[in-house]
């Protein structure tokens, strides 16, 4: 059946591999009959884990890969040396067109390097950004870039804004998404050298809906649909988001256990609290795509459970159906012809 | 009485000026008899507001300043032109030695520029960092720098680490405080150009307790006592901290109002929740000092209420008593002699 979206899945990557990864694959193919998962990893091990499940067997295939890239390994070296690793084997499936997408909860560095070196960039894309969805008070915002592209240039940020707008419009369904640049004040003259140079370029872009600077304080309130920033800043935002949310939740839960009165109250508010915190849980939104590549590469949390793996696999279908890469190619090429 | 700590207070700065500012001054002098507050601002207005309170009258004095610097004004120009503004008049009191410290909830830009131009730097200090305290699961951490020094150099960050360590040890009472640099991974080879250059310099510092990289996710858990970063990143951290905390709290409160069951529960957990959130409220910790100046300059939130103003005034006493500036001078000069 050629209408399958074929997803190569790194069965060896992440804190909970291969158990939760394989469970996520099974959940995905049970949910959707238009997905085929190509599990890469140590065949015997994967077979054994898979045998515990019943699922439509034509929708999961094992592709043997004997090696594993560890999180602590220097990524460039790992991609070059471990040719039979689950990551390299899966990426080569995408490169050869045997898979539409690649999903991994493994080494971020290896996924980012492999994406560029093996899968390759769409012509004209200067740097592929990693773009996770952040939960906000108004839904979600796309944070672009929080990948490996530290010390980016203004032209990179302009491409991030364009690619992010395409993603938000066609994957998330947000018409004419707003674009903001992370800054330390609302005024145009504020910012560091990068932001000051990028601001007028974004303002001059006709194909995005640029609304100016966004202060970090406003991000959780949904200040813009696409939040553009350089990768170091984006990484700080992503991780602090998780950190403050996690710490505060822990503190609130502990606080509720301090007296009998509050314990009883805690029992009563628990279901409501759970629903609230679910809204602010980034694993609900699947993994972060690495945009601008010849194929889709999705990085999910290292701590991913089956739910996040399943969501990440399913999101690949929309990506393919919406022809996101064709749209990126058109916008990037159009900009180059204009220059 | 020469044992007074004399604090010049910008009575016109901030969203709640002059009401909450003056109220904060009154609270401070009622709490401590070793503080004298010099209120700068429009004399008639301040007199009128002050007349509503009873307080030890020899501890508050009004110094007339006819102008006000607005938050939106370009700071360099404002400091230069508005010589009779509450900020410039107060800073000149510090410069002339008539006040030990200056506290303002007004324009951050004007306070940062005025601090450098009017109060002046301690010899050898390259850039004065703004260093607020962040509430964490383990107490507080000093975030240094989140001021106006964007695009900092490695030597600046090294001085931030030293000044921050002195502050944490002698104001907060943390013996041998740990120092971490904000980074996007734990390994030494990770980071942007600035972090990679700064890391070995910090590692080589004998007078600080450097523990390496700190990821943003770990900051709320109290990963290090002194969190060193460049100002743009620091500003993002500070504001996102407030933003995520505020948004999540709002969401949790709204979530608790969704059913009768959770409403009853909310009533029961309310006191415990309030105490918990107070721990994570940065206004409990007063304002942020601008370190490395000939005198103390403290910037409090624009939205400060009397409580934060009062805490900021009181913290000036410890700063003076602990001779923080003498200690900074020694450490900076010692480093220069070593070079």
Keywords:
homodimer, 339 residues, alpha/beta, 6-stranded mixed beta sheet, 5-stranded mixed beta sheet, 11 helices, 11 strands, globular
Description:
- Two copies of one chain form a homodimer.
- With 339 residues, chain A is of the alpha/beta class.
- The first copy, chain A, is built from eleven helices and eleven strands.
- The first copy, chain A, has helices spanning 19-31, 43-50, 75-81, 86-95, 108-119, 154-170, 193-204, 231-255, 260-279, 306-321, 324-338; strands at 5-10, 35-41, 60-64, 101-104, 133-136, 139-144, 178-183, 209-215, 226-228, 288-290, 296-299.
- In chain A, the strands form two sheets. A six-stranded mixed beta sheet of chain A has the order 3-2-1-4-11-10, sandwiched between helices. A five-stranded mixed beta sheet of chain A has the order 5-6-9-7-8, with helices on both faces.
- In chain A, α1 (19-31) links the parallel β1 and β2 (35-41).
- The longest helix of chain A is centred in the last third of the chain and has 25 residues, at 231-255.
- Chain A is globular.
- The N and C termini of chain A lie far apart (43 Å).
- The model of chain A has no long low-confidence stretch (mean pLDDT 91).
What's this model, at a glance?
The structure is a homodimer of 339-residue chains. Chain A has 339 residues and is an alpha/beta fold.
What does the main sheet of chain A amount to? 6 strands, mixed
Order of helices and strands of chain A: EHEHEHHEHEEHEHEEHHEEHH
Question: Quaternary arrangement of the chains shown?
Answer: homodimer
Q: How widely separated are the two ends of chain A?
A: 43 Å
Quick one: which chains have the greatest interface?
A: A-B, 64 and 64 residues
**SSE-based structural type of chain A:** alpha/beta
Q: Identify the strand order in the major beta sheet of chain A.
A: 3-2-1-4-11-10
Helical proportion of chain A? Answer: 40-55%
**Which range does the strand content of chain A fall in?**
15-25%
Number of helices of chain A: 11
Say how many strands of chain A there are.
11
- Nearest-integer average pLDDT of chain A: 91
Please give the radius of gyration of chain A in angstroms.
21 Å
- Model regions low in confidence, pLDDT < 50 over at least 5 residues of chain A: none
Q: Tell me the overall shape of chain A.
A: globular
